[in-house]
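Dear support,

We are seeing what looks like truncated structure output for some complexes. This example has three components. We would appreciate it if you could run it in full and send us the complete token output so we can diff it against ours.
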Amino acid sequence: MDTNLALVLLLAPFLGFLINVFFGKSLGKSVSGFIGTGAVVVSFAVTLLFFLQINQNGKPIQISLFDWISINNFKIDFGFLLDQLSLLWLMFVTGIGSLIHLYSINYMHDDENMHKFFAYLNLFVFFMITLVMGSNLLVMFIGWEGVGLCSYLLIGFWYKNQDYNDAAKKAFIMNRIGDLGLLVGIFIIATLFTTLDFVSLKETILGGTNSGNTVWIAAAALALFIGACGKSAQIPLYTWLPDAMAGPTPVSALIHAATMVTAGIFMITRLNFLFDLAPSVQNIIAIIGGATALLAATIGLVQNDIKKVLAYSTVSQLGLMFLALGLGAYEIAVFHVITHAFFKACLFLGSGSVIHALHGEQDMRKMGGLRKAMPVTFITMLISSLAISGVFPLSGFWSKDEILMTAFHHNLPLYIVGSIASIMTAFYMFRLMYLTFFKEFRGTEEQKHHLHESPALITFPLIVLAILATIGGLISLPGNSWLNQYLAPLFAEKAGEAHHLGTTEYMLMAVALIGAFVGIGWAYVKYIKQSELPEEDSKITGFSKVLYNKYYVDEVYEAIFVKPINALSRFFRDYIERALSSFVFGFGKAATEISYQGKKLQSGNVGFYLFAFVLGICGMITYLFLAQ
Amino acid sequence: MSVVLIIFCVLSAVTLGSAFLTIFTKNPIHSAIYLVICFFSIAGHYLLFNAQFLAIVHVIVYSGAIMILFLFTVMLMNLNKEDEVHKPRIQRWAAGIFFVLMCVVLMLIFRQSKPIVGPYDTTGEDYQSIKVLGKVLLNEYMVPFEFASVLLLTAMIGTVLLSKKEKK
Amino acid sequence: MDNVLNQIGIENYIFLSVILFSIGVFGVLYRRNAIIVFMSIEIMLNAVNLLFVAFSTYHQDASGQVFVFFSMAVAAAEVAVGLAILVSIFRNLGSIDIDNLKNLKG
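Here is the complete output from our reference environment:
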């Protein structure tokens, strides 16, 4: 029974994909949209069933479909593991996924390839479910690659624009570089433990039978972290995420805010027992997480494209999550993943609503004063911005605070880095709000006349997500955390980890709140009081220019990696390819030459033929009579 | 040195010489004459073998019929003084080499097959008389004999057809 | 009747025949005039006939001479047809130089 339900969960989106691929065009736009949405809703319903069941009895469900690879004593089966972590992830993946599908029905209505869009979205949800539900590293890897593929397909959805195609390629290639790290990690684990199954790995490692292998375990952990960097956009593999904004906004919301980019965090949380054995790697994770958070926040301060601001904000928040992971606070990272999914998805969908109303305008310098024309969008985005800035009592406050508290107790420099990043987050989020919704409208008259609130299918998901962003903090209040209790079976016993609410903690909470208000206030002063406007691209100078150009990281990568590889392929094309071609063609040329020379025998000259006769006769006679 | 041997040598010299001259003279009429001499000398060889009938038939068929045909054709084509261009030098040298090659190869064959040089037996029967020849021809080789007649008929028809003038 | 070969010996006849045949071959390869080529072919045929008769005496068998009969018949037929072809060629091409017969070039 459980197996069948789990298969329904897994295959409903795949079925939606197949229907939309083969029949989508003939079914019409609305029908294909609803089929796509319905598939994900079915998955969500099954997930809810399992979730309630596991919340009650706390027993994970292990399903094995068939023996996949079996060599000597190395067995991998194709199976699924429905435990607390995977069901939690599935809840918000399918839940937010359903909302975004619903949103896309209206958002993509004008596009002629809408059925293809829903097909790809369903395929993505299918692969994400595979990733999350996999019972061993290899099934997870299938899902890992699959979501990378769907990300590529969806970023380059409007394929007629070559820039979008380049962005899609960049995303996929950087993902692949990370995947190499993941594969190396999988190989090392397979060699060390001869199993890739999560349950078996946990038993083996916690049973303490591997003390001599610390170097290799650290190597495996580092390699796995590199894979997570590629997927979750940490330094140095983060530059694809801002470029990925070339895809339609629902794609940005689903893949690059709520689900795919959290896959790295999911993997590390899944293998927390492995990472606990490699404290050096955990340090590296924390440092990179903190550095990414700060770097992305600084870039986000000066961006003018509304989606790019949100993209850098995502990278920054992911950095905070890795910071938590690096400090060993896995439950807190998961908490932040969930709250971030709520408010970031809401922000992206809201920005999509704005872009839709302005018929594709994404530059904030051409927006303004939209709060009267689009009240629902304004209010939901305001709530989400407050949440991301960490304002009490919204969800973001609780999760971000936990991270900062953990950092304070373990590693003071990282606490400072995190706090600065949070203050910057508040600043640029409200810069976005003020530029978009306040003051006067700076666009064309044409756009001004067509300004109106988006229809229900768009605003309904916004409202749901805003509500979740508000109350989301309730799942893990300090001192009484349902989430920590729920996830406890997954993690090793850590004495005294729960944060007692003492004076230090209250102080820290107050500091964080003050920091948030400083950020909001500064943005208010700059953009409302002083009515400053960001300048035209050509007039940006000095350090702002460096920030605006993303510290020229893309250019550096281009010079270090892209140009040499292009030169190498040119070398191969010009020399080695040519040599090989002439060698192969040489065979044909040799045959032609031989036949050309042989043709001369048929000269038609009777005298020559007579010579040939005599020679032949002599040869034959010699052979017949003399050579015996 | 018996008389027969001397006669043989003389006849051989005439045969070879006239054959050689057939090839080397420029005038085709002279070639034809030399060839006739060659045929007559071969008929002489046949007589040495006591094959009288064969010798006479040889003279009649070859010198009497075939050479006449040749002469007619030469005169038809009006090849007077020889205006024939020689073959390229290298081909002429190659012809000489092939001549030597052919000699060598054939000699080697005969040498290898080693004919028994011993006493040559003689049956008492005069196997070369017309009577015996006729009997052999018409008893054992009847079928080829008949076919030969068909062959000659075909050749005749073919020749007439080939040399008809095309009607314009 | 003594076998004439007792006095001459068969090897001499073999030599004679071989050299005559080779002269015929030489003639075929040496000259450009088609008629001379034909004559050389006749020389070759005659060399062979001579050898047949020699061996017929050697084996004291009449079959050799009978074969010579047939060979002569065939030679006559061949000359007739060959000369007819030659005349056709002469009518079409104006000369009987065998180096002009190049239509089979390919």
